[in-house]
Write a structure and sequence with these properties.
- With 314 residues, this protein is mostly helical.
- Helices cover 70% and strands 0% of the residues.
- It is globular and about 55 Å long.
Length: 314
């Protein structure tokens, strides 16, 4: 068990997040699927907690890598989503887990900003910045469950405010500066996540919704998801890295947001029949990616430690 915990990469929290989100997405079709995916996500969560207890130094080691440090935000994001699974049974514990997730995410933002933005180094900028700074908007998606819509709205506006300047900054780093190492290449898929997360958070935490805001966020989210899809054939040719976790949540939240947008447009009297194939494709693709990454991680963790040549590269 100790050897397995030692091999468990911190970026697996991205898969944990993707599984929890996919469970909420597919739970509308069958509750059994929701709890199956939620259980797997919870097992990963417990594994990471045990790893931090047994090997506390791994936290400092992970934070020394800007990519891993950003992806660490998926841990509190996953806490927020997993809290929705236990809320029907233990509402007080669920709210505590949700509030702790929001706090830890905010703390990570502060610590990361102090460590990596002061002084600023463009070569330490990656698309994983999106998940760190905008990821807290998961709190907007889940806030209504705890009657915390006001907090959810505040988190949404924070996420939107930091997302806008991050777009040109991260894009300049990716397209102009370049030099992104291969183990960090998969995180470019995170481009697909923030706009969709903002849309999902907006639809969830705002009782009065602006059609213009929904269409603007929805249109941009679709373009970013399309960009991510175009990148996938190239990225899937790489050997497995723990950063493969980036292939999960961005596509799941894109499917959730698109699903919510079509529901909103239908309620407004718009005919969304032309969007239905896209909606179904996004759900199927997100499901396939989460299962694929789960399989790759299972194979990765089952390999002998002597063959673990990529465990610390991402």
């Amino acid at each position: 068990m100790k050897a397995l915990l030692q091999k468990l990469p911190l970026p697996i929290s991205g898969l944990m997040l993707g599984l929890a989100a996919l469970g909420n997405l597919l739970g509308t079709y069958h509750p059994g699927i929701r709890y199956l995916l939620g259980t797997i996500s919870a097992i990963i969560f417990l594994g990471l907690v045990l790893k931090l207890l047994v090997f506390p130094g791994c936290l400092k080691e992970g934070f020394s890598n800007p990519v891993v440090a950003c992806i660490m935000a998926t841990f509190p994001m996953g806490m927020m989503l997993l809290s929705t699974y236990i809320n029907p049974f233990l509402p007080a514990l669920a709210f505590g887990a949700w509030a702790l997730g929001v706090f830890l995410n905010a703390l990570l933002v502060i610590l990361f900003t102090k460590t990596y933005l002061i002084p600023f180094n463009i070569k330490k900028v990656f698309s994983s910045y999106f998940v760190l700074y905008v990821g807290i908007v998961v709190g907007s998606v889940t806030a209504p469950l705890y009657g915390m819509q006001n907090v959810g709205q505040l988190l949404f506006w924070f996420g939107l405010a930091v997302y806008i300047p991050l777009i040109p900054l991260v894009t300049y780093r990716v397209l102009k500066v370049g030099g992104i190492p291969e183990p960090a290449q998969p995180v470019i898929i995170i481009y697909a996540a923030p706009a969709s997360l903002l849309l999902a958070g907006y639809l969830s935490s705002f009782p009065e919704k602006s059609l213009a805001m929904v269409v603007a966020l929805g249109g941009w989210a679709f373009l970013m998801t399309l960009y991510g899809l175009v990148q996938m054939p190239r990225l899937l040719k790489f050997p497995f890295y723990p950063s493969y976790s980036a292939f999960t949540f961005p596509f799941v939240i894109s499917a959730i947001a698109f699903n919510g947008m079509t529901g909103f447009l239908n309620a407004q009297g718009f005919n969304t029949a032309l969007l239905e194939p896209i909606r179904i494709f996004q759900i199927l693709w997100a499901t396939a990616m989460v299962l694929y990454v789960l399989l790759r991680y299972t194979l990765f963790l089952s390999v002998s430690p002597k063959k673990q040549v990529t465990a610390k590269k991402a």
